[in-house]
Write a structure and sequence with these properties.
Blueprint lengths: L3 H22 L3 H25 L1 E2 L2 E2 L3 H21 L5 H26 L5 H28 L10 H22 L8 H17 L7 H23 L2 H25 L3 H6 L23 H9 L3 E6 L1 H5 L3 H13 L3 E6 L9 H8 L7 E3 H7 L5 E5 L8 H4 L18 E6 L19 E5 L2 H13 L2
């Protein structure tokens, strides 16, 4: 009969391998679903192996009925939430679930600190780091959830920057003091760190604007992964360690890519001034008379074009217009028009938001072009349809050094022959600045709800 410890380690090895392969598959939309399922299966294997094979001092794990009951309840709640959530609310769900992961990591640190009589430096580092990072991830994710759901507004004051710096230095000082010092606070230190970390998580996310949320969600996700890795060190659990490191490293890389796409500084994210100082400087100058077009005229422009580019934004997600957008694409292609999508990496409210929406509508993956590839095609594109996007197509990013979005890579839709912007009004985007694109000679505004406009366009194109 095989040794239980051997079976446990083999299960952890297999679980770790599935995490790595699953993460690799997530790099392409066509394999992402299978990668997610594979990694989930590996996690399930690791959980079951822990329940049935883990032993401590010759004794099997206890409270199995309670553990299974908790898993069943959590599975049911998670399943119901995932099935009921709308695609427009997916960023909120990502933030919520990420916060739960951070909370679990913090609770692990609290339990381990209070159940171990002796605290050597290595143990203390793992406990304190898991507690601090997990708590920041939890409270920050809950604030992000509330902001994305419209329950709280952005609150920014220059004092936040200094408060957050003081909080960070205080937390780091207390951690070092707790590991190497005499720690006169005794058992109260862990609770002081918990309170300060929760406060910091709230204050560093509070001033961040909605347009910057993809970066924040990615950063908080990496925090949760690092916190989980601390738990893996505490328990000497290889699969927990591997999973945490993969999430932490992947989240960090994604965060850096997001900050590059937004022309932001990661340091400003951490100290809480990220996006908060973006005032309404800069805007369209000169003649600001926007030309309005009709559904019929837009359909004629697109129907007789050789190449059409579609730039989706958050307005498309709010209107749940992804299926109507795909119908327009198919109608145009039946007329011999080449159609492609220009996907800005931070369009929407989470990394890959537009890709997820369009994939749900069965848009072919090879039509979803990244920013650089799309910009290369735009000078040879007849018509661009901007659907609910604003800041990611704003030319001020290239022309106005005083603008808060200056230097941010954008979709250069103005290089195409014609631009039609489908939008409810001329209101500014989340950067709170006007968009000169709306007033250019080659631009027309189609004021409407995205889904309504696209459905009408489909009907008109079919009648051409």
């Amino acid at each position: 009969m095989l040794n239980q410890h051997f079976l446990l380690e083999i299960s952890y090895l297999l679980g770790s391998i599935t995490f790595i392969i699953g993460l690799k598959k997530l790099s392409h939309p066509e394999t992402a679903r299978n990668g997610n399922l594979l990694a989930a299966a590996g996690m399930g294997l690791a959980i079951l192996a822990t329940i049935f094979f883990h032993q401590k001092e010759g004794h099997s794990i206890g409270n199995i009925p309670w553990i299974i009951a908790g898993m069943v309840i959590g599975t049911i709640i998670g399943w119901l939430m995932a099935m009921k959530v709308k695609m427009t609310a997916m960023p909120q769900m990502v933030s919520f679930f990420n916060g739960m992961g951070g909370a679990c990591a913090a609770i692990i640190s609290l339990v381990e600190y209070n159940t171990h009589g002796t605290h050597d430096p290595g143990f203390s580092w793992m406990v304190f780091l898991g507690l601090v990072i997990g708590s920041v991830s939890f409270s920050g994710s809950m604030v992000a959830f509330a902001k994305l759901d419209g329950k709280i507004k952005d609150i920014f004051t220059s004092a936040f920057t200094y408060i957050n710096i003081v909080l960070l230095l205080s937390i780091l000082g207390l951690v070092v003091w707790g590991v190497y010092g005499h720690n006169p606070l005794g058992g109260h230190l862990i609770w002081v760190l918990l309170a300060l970390s929760l406060l910091y998580g709230v204050l560093f996310v509070m001033p961040i604007g909605g347009a910057d949320m993809p970066v924040v969600i990615s950063l908080l996700n990496s925090f949760t992964g690092v916190a989980a890795a601390m738990g893996g060190f505490l328990y000497n659990n290889t699969v927990m360690l591997t999973g945490g490191i993969l999430v932490g490293s992947a989240g960090t890389i994604l965060t850096l890519l997001m900050t590059k796409a937004m022309n932001r500084s990661l340091l400003n994210v951490i100290i809480g001034s990220f996006g908060g100082s973006a005032t309404a400087k800069g805007g369209a100058s000169g003649d600001k008379n926007a030309k309005e077009t009709t559904v019929t005229d837009t359909a004629i422009m697109c129907g007789y074009a050789a190449r059409v580019c579609i730039v989706p934004g958050y307005g498309l997600a709010v209107a749940q217009a992804q299926h109507a957008c795909h119908e327009l694409e198919k109608s145009l292609e039946e007329k011999g028009v080449e159609v492609y999508y220009a996907i800005h990496p931070v369009a929407g409210r989470m990394p890959g938001h537009m890709n997820v929406l369009l994939a749900e509508a069965d848009v072919s993956y090879d039509k979803l072009l990244e920013l650089e590839d799309a910009n290369a095609l735009l000078p040879n594109t007849d018509v661009v349809l901007v659907i609910g996007a604003n800041d990611v197509v704003n030319p001020l990013a290239e022309t106005d050094p005083s603008s808060p979005i200056y230097g941010m890579p954008v979709v250069k839709v103005w290089e195409a022959n014609r631009v039609v912007v489908i939008k409810r009004s001329l209101s500014p985007g989340y950067a709170k600045i006007d968009n000169p694109l709306f007033y250019m000679d080659k631009s027309w505004m189609l004021f409407s709800d995205a889904k309504k406009a696209l459905n009408a366009l489909v009907a008109e194109v079919k009648n051409i």
